[in-house]
Amino acid sequence: MRNVSFTVEYKKPEWKLVKRLLAFMKPYKLAAISAFVLAILGSGIAPLTPYLSKIAIDEYIPDGDYNGVLKIAILITIVLVVRGILKYFQTYVMNRTGQKVLFDIRKALFDKIHTLLISWFDKHPVGSPVTRVTNDVEAMNKLFTSGIVLIIADIAYIVWIVAFMFYTDAGLALITLSVLPVLLAVSFFFRKKIREIYRLVRIKISEMNSFLNETFSGIHVVKQFNAENKSKDDFNFLNFSALSLNLKGVKYFSMFFPAIELISGFALGLALWYSAGSVISHSLSAGVVIAFMQYIEMFFRPVRDLSEKYTTLQAAMASSEKIFSFLDEDSIENNLGNNKNSFKQSIHFKNLAFSYDGKKQVLRDINFEVKKGETVAIVGATGSGKTTIVNLLLRFYDGFSGNIFIDGVDIREVNPIAFRKLTALVMQENIIFRGSLAENIIPGSKPDDKKLIEAAKSVGAYGFISKLPGRFAYDPGDFGANLSTGQKQLIAICRAFAADPEILILDEASSGIDSGTEHIIENSLHKLFSGRTSIVIAHRLSTVKKADRIIVLHHGEIRESGTHKELIEKNGIYAKLVILQMSK
């Protein structure tokens, strides 16, 4: 088995994490306070039972007072019933509140995903945000539904017991509590170890989720190249890494409980040793000793519970580190800029340069203008930077030098969300979501049948849609699995047509499909282009012949610009591309 090594991604002081977690409870402050009050009241009446037992043993039993003993028994029963009622309402209120808090955290995480730049997704595996929304939030389930309140309740319980111990006999209380320094030292040691382990476990789970997602998405490639064994080995390595960490946590957890039991036994022995002489000398009653034995057991019971809840807390803290690290990622919403509600003049790329990794330049000194109503095509070999221009225009990426002006305003000063509403993008590989074709064509609102039919007929998609079961109600399956590549492309073009954008962007929209579907798409493109500003990226040059201007990119630079006829006459790069495609 390969060596396992781990790194810690993110650390913050625990109190800061707790403070941020508690901020999620602010909308439910009244319910949380109610649960805390119920917990403290329930903890406060619990130590009454040993004290009532002391009274019965010291005052009523020696005198044979049956009525007095019966009165004490009734009081103890009332205490237990009241505590049970308080416990019921405390549990109900806190669990209900906790579930609402978890709902808000999941919502905050999912909302955050939509504000991240595409560059973030390039650097992080897809399993990372999935783990944040699912596993990490679930790890905080017990913390919010019961953990916080029960921790407070246990602390209050201990305070009440200590108070009753000192009220009953201060000397015996001091002897019993002399073990506290050892208890605190042991707790601190295990706290540090368990916290680190749970942090590493969250990292491993995130890596495992990412690997699973990649494997499921690429299962066809795995099978095609007989890579099943390698895939299994890689997963086993990640699985073993997680197992090793969890077993290490189990080891510390298993050691912690016996340590607490040993300290508890030592405290009990000290109390018995001290009280034995006092009972013999009649300076201490039997009732006090018996009450103290109950107090000691009651004192260490919440200590043991706290150790278990502390494990829950550490798992939650480790998850919260990952969650807040994710929520603190730089977001495009941090600088939304001014709203742009219409497009009136032009898109101007000026001295534009960009690098994805900060080393290799993908674009260099890009200068051209797309005027309103124009159709401008961008062509070039794979890797020449065509799609990158679109990515920067739509603010999928930031960090470019130079400028992109929209109607004379730098795009970095324009609200990207508002600007995207003016555009429609059709890519080579378009995502079709599960649901219905209607929801895919007109997402985000109740689809209008008339508009659906108009869009489908306009781009030539109505023919195949009308033959599907349920027509526009048809479920395309996950990622459009029930549709062909050409059909998915037609649905994406329908989506663009129905959006009625002012700026249309086609990025290899007719690439990778059969010639029949390509013919349908090309025949419908003039309807899409009509009255709109269009930017067309294409490998197949037949798509761009009618463009007002063709930009030829080569190694990230503009080498040629002109109409199809002008570029053919130049006999340069574009002319060679045309000849190359015609020869195929």
Outline the structure in words.
- The protein has helices spanning 14-23, 29-45, 48-60, 66-113, 118-123, 127-139, 141-168, 170-176, 180-217, 219-224, 228-280, 286-327, 386-393, 416-420, 437-441, 449-458, 462-465, 485-499, 515-529, 564-570, 573-582; strands at residues 346-354, 363-371, 375-380, 401-406, 409-410, 423-426, 503-507, 533-537, 549-554, 557-562.
- By secondary structure, it is of the alpha/beta class.
- A hairpin with a 2-residue loop joins strand 9 (549-554) and strand 10 (557-562).
- Helix 8 runs antiparallel to helix 11, helix 9 (180-217) packs parallel to helix 12 and helix 20 (564-570) crosses helix 21.
- The model is unreliable at 1-13 (pLDDT under 50).
Characteristics:
584 residues; 4-stranded antiparallel sheet; disordered N terminus; 6-stranded mixed sheet; alpha/beta
| Radius of gyration from CA coordinates | 35 Å
Overall, the morphology is elongated
Count every beta strand, where a strand is a DSSP E run of 2 or more residues: 10
Overall average pLDDT: 79
Largest sheet: 6 strands, mixed
Chart the SSEs and their pairings.
Layout: H1 14-23, H2 29-45, H3 48-60, H4 66-113, H5 118-123, H6 127-139, H7 141-168, H8 170-176, H9 180-217, H10 219-224, H11 228-280, H12 286-327, E1 346-354, E2 363-371, E3 375-380, H13 386-393, E4 401-406, E5 409-410, H14 416-420, E6 423-426, H15 437-441, H16 449-458, H17 462-465, H18 485-499, E7 503-507, H19 515-529, E8 533-537, E9 549-554, E10 557-562, H20 564-570, H21 573-582
Parallel strand pairs: 3-8, 3-9, 6-7, 7-8
Antiparallel strand pairs: 1-2, 1-4, 4-5, 9-10
Helix pairs in contact: 1-12, 2-4, 2-7, 3-4, 3-12, 4-6, 4-7, 6-9, 6-12, 7-8, 7-12, 8-11, 9-11, 9-12, 11-12, 16-18, 18-19, 20-21
